[in-house]
Amino acid sequence: IARAVVMQPDLILADEPTGNLDPERSIELIELFKTINYQGTTVLVATHDRMLIEAQPARTLVLDRGRLVADGFGVPR
Question: Does residue 11 or residue 49 have the better pLDDT?
Answer without folding.
Answer: 11
